[in-house]
């Protein structure tokens, strides 16, 4: 038990540090399924529309690749489990990965863990505290999802099964992150390893679900087990035991690896750099490139895959909505176009913009990470000026998001063009729709810079702002929220290209708001104390 001394105190510290992010993560992810369950009866009110939906989904491997196999689309519960059975565990797993890494490897990066280890804390206390904190978030997400579905009138058994698999999938990848934290010497590398494992699990499930001849691949992925639990379509509780067993095994591996390394080191030591820096590395921008390049490359690859996946789905969107007039109207409200394919392309362009805003917040808050890690002050003691340093990071916040939108538009337009036989026409149209989201994303960057400049201790609140914009844009039109509420999100004001008319005015307003926010935040940063 001495190896766990101090765990309770470290858990309290971790929960206090995550008192905003942890509840926000659980709330945002957990309430999504109930919103879909409530709309099912309106979208598919009769047996004919539900039969059309079932037939279309069963015959469309592209949709199955993205959402997983549809086990029962004749009920609101089965439809909800199909729509969110992959993505809810996926988002929960990502949150668990970042939480574990933040409270283990990142603490070692900053030197705080070495200081804590010199006090009365056990060798395994920090790892245990990180896993418990991630478990609290995963359990909260699963509980909110289950309670929301029960509140929407769905069967309690299926609701609990859905929430339980969401929680257990998060715990599996929390254990994966715990292993990565032992292997890598830096938090960025640990996050990259764990996220790559999650991405590989998604690909295994996608290939196994969409190709009947290799369906066994789904059983090699924890995300595949989450769908095979079949909430509201049989509730196969035994499959959930696979998630429990793997989480325990992977967690045990992490605990066995921990004593094999020193605090601050990894099982695989970092490769030493050259004794003398190259001339091209002697500038603030070169340092920023070194800090951002790995994350930017990973996000770019992810956007390329998402663009290809969504682009391949566009031509078959009619199968998704079936013959339901209500579903078609919902899609039209989301995209603002009468043509369903153009509506879908407009919708995915907006989704790419909202997801890109998450990268924008991450890149912008890297400035705060450098500040609290005490790496900024030594730089400012040289000839480097504050605005010069901040500008080198904002290049990646602004131009990095533009790159992500370009890549997603290119791949989505290419795959859609190949399916409809019009590559030359579809690539520019879809590319224009995704790039049009850039001014709205830059508004999010501006808000993050304002928070960083005026209230640096609350910098993580920028994540909450981006999440609110995402929720308003995705679900506000479907639930017919008042226009004044929808207008809070900058993504509401972007013309719904490719079918809507291009209007300069909203872009000018968004660019102006972003510029004012950036200038205001940077002006305050230039005058405030560092730290």
Q: Main sheet, how many strands, which sense, barrel?
A: none
Which structural class best describes the helix and strand composition? mainly alpha
Say what oligomer this is. Answer: single chain
Q: Please indicate the percent range of residues in DSSP E strands (runs of 2 or more).
A: under 5%
> Rg to the nearest angstrom?
23 Å
The helix fraction, in percent, is over 70%
What is the CA-CA span between the terminal residues? 37 Å
User: Low-confidence spans: pLDDT under 50, at least 5 residues?
Assistant: 334-338
How many individual β-strands? 0
Tally the helices. Answer: 25
Instruction: Report the order of strands and helices.
Output: HHHHHHHHHHHHHHHHHHHHHHHHH
State the shape: globular
Mean pLDDT figure: 84
Brief rundown of the structure:
The protein has 531 residues and is mainly alpha-helical.
Describe this structure in words.
This protein is an all-alpha fold. Helix content is 73%, strand content 0%. The chain contains 25 helices and no strands. Helix 20 packs antiparallel against helix 22. It is globular, with a radius of gyration of 23 Å. The two termini are 37 Å apart. The model is unreliable at 334-338 (pLDDT under 50).
List the helices and strands and how they pair.
Layout: H1 7-17, H2 21-30, H3 32-43, H4 47-58, H5 61-67, H6 76-84, H7 87-103, H8 105-110, H9 112-117, H10 125-151, H11 156-183, H12 187-210, H13 222-228, H14 237-257, H15 284-314, H16 317-321, H17 325-335, H18 340-372, H19 376-380, H20 386-420, H21 423-435, H22 438-454, H23 461-475, H24 483-486, H25 504-527
Helix pairs in contact: 1-10, 2-7, 2-10, 3-6, 3-10, 5-12, 5-15, 7-10, 7-11, 7-12, 10-11, 11-12, 11-13, 11-14, 13-14, 15-18, 15-20, 17-18, 18-20, 18-21, 18-22, 18-23, 20-21, 20-22, 22-23, 22-25
